[in-house]
Design a protein that fits this description.
The protein is mainly alpha-helical. The protein is about 80% helix and about 0% strand. It has one domain: MFS general substrate transporter like domains (Growth Hormone, Chain: A), CATH 1.20.1250.20. The two termini are about 40 Å apart.
């Protein structure tokens, strides 16, 4: 048969393609196991998010209270993210992750039980959401910092990008699945499924034989935090990454925070599918991102994606049908991944490995803290002027913020990013 005749590929070319493939990290068993478990856990997290957002709309239709669900998830970032980063550089990251994963199992499980028993009020829901967010924030710096420990050095950047892909696979599947579960049962079942989703990661961590790191800071957490601050303060790259992240995150929080109200006419399944379309857009964006990186600089790509996200945010408040809302969310998701993939790789590489968790904690403080602050601000504003105008104001804030930080570009040669990454 003609199609069985193939021209041999030179070994050097084949090896180069293997090394630079976006999927190469999945060929490494350790990373593949963790990535698979993480996708299941992320899926549970998105089911939790849908369940919490929808449950709040059943308890109250106040835009402020609905937006506070997103704020409560991210509020702990202001309280513990910097100590969490220091702890992740000072103690066994595997042990810390086992503790935080167990905390989240208990928090989501108890919320599920109380919901099934009918004992949840708006403030109880916000309280458990805060507790779950607290575990997530304590978990995040160590979680992101272990990526170089479970993958080879040449596959580090593609592995960071694949983590984003896995998160967005879950973002596409989890909300739709959560919406269907809630429609068939109630939010309590979604919370219990989220609790169960952590056990894959826990099993991986329990069996993982982590290598002893070459250098570990000892002493007090406060001293380790101050050391990290001093290192970051002297880095131009760190300033660029953090300023660009902050300028985006505050305005960008409104769309997801107010989505439960936008999707309310379409039911819990429609809400889940709306979030699912956001995730599908992020997957599509991740697929075309390497090609775009060949034609545009990192800074230009982030700028174009930020402007596109601002336009979709403003548009979301004025669409009337589910089809148009889904389209807006899809495009917004594609823009979102282009922005955060670049920022995340930059944050992973902006400080030395022994300071990585502290650097990531600063990045997460700005990103998630900005999202939490913005969620509360836009929810309060929507209470006064309505959801469409609040979304329009947030879109203008994104645009103004983008041009305000143009003096701090994301230069690819300074943040360790190449066209093959992401």
């Amino acid at each position: 048969m003609a199609d069985s005749i193939q021209t041999p590929i030179p070994e050097t070319v084949s090896a180069a393609r293997h090394q630079h493939s976006a999927w190469a990290p999945l060929r490494e068993p350790l990373f593949r196991s963790l990535w698979s478990a993480a996708v299941v856990s992320y899926t549970g997290t998105w089911m939790q998010n849908v369940g919490a957002g929808w449950l709040m709309t059943q308890l109250t239709m106040s835009p402020l209270m609905v937006s506070l669900v997103a704020a409560a998830t991210m509020l702990p970032v202001f309280l513990v993210i910097l100590p969490a980063g220091a702890l992740a550089d000072m103690m066994d990251r595997r042990r810390l992750l086992l503790l935080t994963q167990g905390w989240m199992v208990v928090a989501s499980g108890l919320l599920g039980v109380f919901t099934l028993l009918g004992h949840v009020t708006p403030w109880i829901l916000l309280g458990f959401t805060f507790l779950l967010g607290l575990g997530g924030v304590m978990n995040d710096p160590a979680w992101q910092a272990i990526t170089p420990e479970v993958v080879s050095a040449e596959n580090h950047a593609p592995a960071v990008a694949l983590n984003s892909v896995g998160f967005n696979v879950a973002r596409a599947v989890g909300p739709a699945l959560g919406g269907m579960v809630i429609a068939a049962t109630n939010s309590g079942v979604a919370f219990l499924l989220n609790s169960a989703s952590f056990f894959g990661v826990i099993f991986f961590l329990y069996r993982w034989k982590r290598k002893v790191p070459e250098r570990v800071d000892t002493g007090r957490v406060r001293d380790a935090m101050l050391h990290g601050f001093r290192e970051a303060r002297g880095s131009h790259v760190v300033r660029c990454v953090l300023l660009r992240t902050g300028a985006f995150s505050i305005g960008a929080s409104s769309l997801l925070a107010l989505l439960p109200i936008l999707a309310r006419p379409h039911g819990p399944t429609g809400f889940g599918l709306s979030l699912g379309h956001f995730g599908l857009g992020a997957l599509a964006g991740a697929a075309v991102l390497p090609r775009l990186r060949h034609h545009f600089s990192v800074d230009s790509l982030v700028m174009m994606a930020t402007l596109l996200f601002a336009v979709m945010t403003a548009t979301a408040g004025y669409v009337q049908t589910f089809g148009w809302l889904s389209t807006v969310m899809f495009v917004a998701g594609a823009a979102w991944i282009a922005i955060l993939a670049c920022l995340n790789v930059a944050a992973q590489t902006m400080l030395p490995s022994w300071l990585r968790a502290r650097g990531l904690s600063m990045y997460l403080l700005v990103l998630q803290g900005g999202m939490a602050l913005g969620s509360a601000v836009w929810g309060g504003l929507a209470n006064k002027i309505g959801v469409p105008l609040a979304l329009l104001c947030s879109a203008l804030t994104i645009t103004v913020g983008l041009f305000a930080v143009r003096r701090f570009p994301l230069e690819h040669n300074r943040v360790g990013m190449t066209a093959e990454h992401n």
